[in-house]
Fold these 3 entries.
Entry 1:
Amino acid sequence: MSQNNWEVHKMLDVYIDDYFMKRTLHASANAFQAEAKVSSDPVAIDASGGFLFEWCLVFWDILIARSQERMKSTQMLLHHTYSQAAFFVSFMTSLPTTLYLFHTQLIKVQEHQQQKQQQ
């Protein structure tokens, strides 16, 4: 493990310990301190609920916001797809009537042309 990774792990251990202490989980904090050999140095960011808790709140807000964005875009896509499907069904349902009217008009035009030719 590189020196930087070691320092990051040690910092994380300090913040985990800080979280345990601020949640008054003293038995867990003591066991963690002993096992992880947590430094007794004070935390650099001393948040009231603990830095990890505060970070988790921010992370959770971001995660929820992204999930809502995805859900909103999925809903828009579904609405768009449904609208296209509804249009297609409407079009296909009216197609026989439209073709019949077109065919009827075509026959009338042909009859009118034949009458003109006969005159």
Entry 2:
Amino acid sequence: MPETDRNELIRRSINERVLRRASEDEEFRRLLIDNPKSAIARELGIDIPDDVHVTVIRETADQLFVIVPWTSADSDGQVLSGIERLVSRVGSGYSMAYTPNVKS
């Protein structure tokens, strides 16, 4: 699988995992809204680079948000972006399986 396809698959998987957790766990949802970087880092068990900015937008019944994904063509030949480094770091040991934190 080409590296770009692999990275896109990992990005989608991260997004799906975080959104699934937010829909199932109200405490995580609040943390994701209030401190998204911390919530995602905790969920994935990784550190998110300082140059990666995370924005969470809460949809409402009368709003639709469309996310236009970043591509390597957007980099203008720059070195790896913080997000690319994050995906590479997560992808090297990332399991796409979702394991919710079980509260005792």
Entry 3:
Amino acid sequence: MSIWQQGKRVMRHYSKQDMQTVRDALASRLADLTAHIRDGLSESEQNQFNAILGRGTGDSSDEALAVSLGDLSAARLDLDIRQWQALKAAEQRLDGSEFGVCVECGKAIPVARLVANPAAERCIECQSAYERSHGGQAHGSL
């Protein structure tokens, strides 16, 4: 299938098997993230939090540690939600002409990259350049 992007002709050659492999990877990652988000804090993180705060002899440093663990868990959950949203957006683009085409250079993104990260919008080279130029602009919530 060929498409036009930013004035360049781009060829995407994904077999039906390649697309099914990407669909399966996307569905699997979505299912995993959905379960993780639904569960919220894992049992062990919740137990650590309760164990620290539940001690009768705890002091302010124990309380600070418990709050920090809670913040860390919230940040992980926030990351999971953002990844889930990116995967849902990729799912919407999956059958469109722009899926699998790098938003920076317009080249086809290798299938192996899409299987590893179905939400990938850039080829490896462009993603590396993006991360170098945007390295200090993290989206973390801590």
